[in-house]
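A reminder before we start the practical. When you read a complex entry, don't treat the lines as separate problems. The point of joint prediction is that each chain is placed relative to the others, so the output describes one connected object in space. Small molecules and nucleic acid strands, if listed, are placed in the same frame. In the example below there are two entries. Take a minute to note the order of the lines before looking further.
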Amino acid sequence: RKEVEQDPGPFNVPEGATVAFNCTYSNSASQSFFWYRQDCRKEPKLLMSVYSSGNEDGRFTAQLNRASQYISLLIRDSKLSDSATYLCVVMAGYNKLIFGAGTRLAVHP
Amino acid sequence: DTEVTQTPKHLVMGMTNKKSLKCEQHMGHRAMYWYKQKAKKPPELMFVYSYEKLSINESVPSRFSPECPNSSLLNLHLHALQPEDSALYLCASSQGSGGENIQYFGAGTRLSVL
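Here is the predicted structure of the whole assembly.
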């Protein structure tokens, strides 16, 4: 079983749509969780950290369910510029990030 | 824009060459990382330096040799690479202590081994 699992997509959605990505992780001792965004041929960039209480940043909402070892990302009112690969990332040990395979999002006009 | 700077952006080398990748950050971070990313795959951790000491080596072949001359610089020395080592090599840095220890990535060096 992979340490971090994501649906690879692609998710093809029209502008203005709401889209949700899910991710599961296997190590129950994991402490920190993140969503990174990676554009084609670019480096990963932090989108947001994920907390049990849930957190929101504009159109983006992230949620963590420790009991189910499940992480989600909700994007509302999708923009063309949201097209990218979204990486679910779990910290295993203080300095070690484990990346999911990524979920590809394509937003079309 | 990223505050982690990697050079060169692109590198083509033969299997007998020796080359080095460089990474620099001026955020005062005390942890630095090397990742390898193949096309359509997520980044895979290679090495972690914490307070200028190698703390994690993910069983990387010895043809990759990391070096951390000081807290701002990280090098990756390459020697006798194979064509399958062609990939995007990403450097990252983080605070190294306390908080979430968020990692920030450089733009990467795209390496082709012929």
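Discuss with your neighbour: Residues 15 and 82 of chain B are 6 Å apart (CA to CA). What might explain this?
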